[in-house]
Queue: 4 jobs
Job 1
Amino acid sequence: MAVPAPRPAARPAAPTPSDGGRTAVVAWVVVLGAAGVTAVLIVADMVHRTPRWSVWPSLAEDSTLWLIAGAVGGVALFAYGFKVRTTQRVIENTPTSTVRSMPLGFVEVAGAAQPDGDPLSSPIGNQPCVFYTYRIQELRGGGRSRRWVTVAEERSTEPFYLRDQTGSVLIVPMGAEATLSKEQVFSNRWPGALPDHVARTLRGIGSPTASWLGPRTIRCREAVIAPGDPLYVLGTAQENPAAAGTSDNAARIYIGPHPNNPRFLISDRSEKALLARLRLVAGGCLYGGPLLTALSIAAWVMRGT
């Protein structure tokens, strides 16, 4: 079902934090800002004490680099936790609508996933689905420099439906943030082996399991939303100009990307389960990040005394 370019839709006012929330944010910004400045001072001190470039290769064994990584990583964790907490607050403050009574603009709906026609087949696992996302990674390097490098990734863009007890609405998943629980992992890292159909798929998309240098260590991650799965969507409901005049939301309205409201989330978890996961991640990052930074700075100070 073709969907025309979306018209601008009214964007609801974002929830404003309370005075207590603003104070907490300012306090965290001050703390993390001080931590960032301290991390810069650590780097400056290390450069001052190590002027010769020939000495830098040996610093990989020096705990200073790990302390710097811990200090900076703590700041990054805090920033990510703040982003997750913002998403959590938006979900908590957005009322759930039924499809029949859903207004235009920013909405939250929940129901079951239905395909628009025949179900899709996921490229890696050959699973029937309405939506899929996959990532293919290769293990590269040697020793301590070994790391997983993403060589291919894709997500489906075909529309599908969300159905609740009052009706159906079309979901256009382009640009959506997908939080999915049904993930399959395939790898040929010892002692595993890739299934034949996965190896054939990799060859078909130009990512074979071997190159002229020899076998490649591959890891594939694929997550799907299957027909009938629970479906939660937070996004912008927009009018389909091609269906103007009809009262059927399944034809008149769709939920999809919108330039004036980039927040667009789809999940196969219930709202309750999704919020529980977001609270856990946000709490771990918001408290664990500053703790990691503080411990790294404290260890550096104690080492210099």
Job 2
Amino acid sequence: MHDGTELRGLIIQNTPDLVVLETDRGEARIPKEYIRRIDDAPNGEAIFADITDRDALPSWRSIVHDLRTHDGIWRFEQIPPTAIDNGLLRNIPYLSFRANKQWEINVYGDPQKPVAIEFGIYGSGRPRQKTRQLFREFLAGHLHDKNQIRALYSLSLKQRDARGGKLAFRLIAPDDPDGYGGTWIVVYQPELLAAARLSDKAYAAITRPFEKVNNPDGSLRADKWEENGNWLDQAMQALTGKNRELRGFYRDQNGVFQVLTGGT
């Protein structure tokens, strides 16, 4: 920078007037007039390539970074978490992200050290083979043990639960009480779930009713885009003391990710 400071991170967008940089402290939007020089570092130095323990789950930043660079993802945005009032993940706080139109990725507990990660797609029918393959390949890429990978791929409507080391795996169907009209693959740490749960009152303050965020088919309510964005800004400020770090991205007609702004 012109004042002598140096910022390091991943460049999300670089325009004639602005650089959007994702750092280890969040998203920074830097006017070009403040920048003296930009040095590109090798990918191996990216701060998002976190090394996780054998039985731990990746941080939300690692997940976001990997999904943003995946060819199968053409739109990605943070959305308000909707209330889960029963089942395995009841009352556990989480960050929620929508990929494309009906895929959802949820990170439960401490975003830096999650107790569970969930991939899902809305709709009463069985997800297409390509979608199931994408979810499983992504999750398998963050596992460290062949028994865990075997457990992940063993999930089916006939075998809903599996275990690999300290990680457990579950398939949730649309008609299950905690399915909410979607098919979900969950990877979680069973011993940590209970300690991550909040009281009903505390949980209600950081989640929204399903119908405020989604249409009945699970697609996002376009008429609530601004309202939900404002709610999420306030919720993230209350939870972390900081502004929301991530709004989202979309892939333009040239295949390049652009930052979501306003009602894009």
Job 3
Amino acid sequence: MEIPFSERPGRHERHFKRKIDNPLFPRPLTHYSDDDLLEVQRLDHEEIVSFLDVLKKLVQQAINLQANEESQVVLDLKAELEKLYETACRLGDQQENNKAALRDLLKVIMATVRSHAGGDAKAEMELQQEDLARQQHFSMLEHDLVVDLLDTEGLILEDELAAVMLSEDEQQVSVALTMLDAEQRLLLAADAVRLIEKNNLVDDEKLKRRIALIRGDN
């Protein structure tokens, strides 16, 4: 029996698929079994179960907030909700409802934070800037490559980064590159050039265009 890939894979299965028969990777997957695929799918499922448990606890914390709750308690809960939203974006299956619930909770928390600001104009401006930065960050998190690169557990290893940037969808790479400064992009491009030279792919037009994208050539 051949195990099918998930329609909406989580981070473990996504990285598993990146390496299949990909010579650019230092450790490509040239052979794998159903058991190998089932294992990464199991890991992704366990992360969903863990996420739902944390989500339930944070929802309860939000419900239990008092009108006069200490500011630090509110801010700590906000930070946990933002962190959990990033986790939700890495998960497999359909997480849109859970992400919407987290966004709604953050709106409620931010309303509480504003009430603590007491109408201070400077504080309100800073909160508006924070709201905008959060919206921009959440928008970036809709790209699988971005969330996988931000993954604190680091499934994408340092020596795999160039291979990932050469192999992934161009739109995903374009968004991910915005997280790097000019010097980091040049270093990454140099790694990518060495990689395609090592694999005798210097004449591959698609890879040459990807190098130019990474470098930021006009």
Job 4
Amino acid sequence: MPLIQKPTNVLISEPEFRLFRDYIEKHSGIVIPQEKTYLLETRLSSHMAQAGVDSFSKFYDYILADNSRQMMHKIVNAITTNETKWFRDVEPWEIFEKKIMPSLVEDLYTGKKERVRIWSAAASSGQEIYSTAMCVDNYLKTNSIHSIKLSNFDFFATDISSSVLDIAKKGRYDKISMARGLSDYYRDKYFTQKGTAWEINENIRNVVEFMPYNLQNTFMCFEKFDVIFCRYILIYFSDELKQDIIRKMHDSLNDGGVVFTGIYALLEMFSEYFNAGSYGNTTYYLKKGDA
């Protein structure tokens, strides 16, 4: 076992950069452009020091020799960008509440649907899927809908990074995380302060299922969804992988299903399988033939 050393400022050469760029894309789908070389140098330095090696080429060999694949998971966790906040951009939840929820509730009420399934495909530390669950619960209660319960909705959340999912499962957030997009209304209604942290109420935490998942894999293992939040993740992938994920999302949606991405629009890529809707600065996508 190599001794744990302090991180060193080792520069990565162009051949070494290509090795790690290809390795990371193979295992995560994330494309690291040449101008982001510094990301590899800064985010991998501590792992390199832990491995007891003094160059990225030696570190690459070390990773390949790790049959447990633990280092591969550490590399993926280190390189992923886990930027997130509560009710990010606001408008997707306004669309969800004003345009999507009435239809979903009607389908449940009439028996057209037995359950509604919602997937957060890049869940990070949980703020997105918990925001969605709170939005559903709040909609049902504020509209006095008693025949439909939160338990009629399945909330499914995945991320390639196991470390952020560990945070998400606990549903426990510090003051800084709580201040990022969460209104006093939702904080007071759905959280309990415990010491310096805030814990999301059990009725919200318990309805969410978390699972590590790589979007490069097939979606055939999932039951079909009604809503997919795939926000701010496609931009990190190659065009080929973007198109593949868009096709897989289409095939994974029930009739009338909807996809939310970020505030960026990928109209040309979605156009084969989806019709675009717009609301404010947000574009969302409806499974084609059902708009």
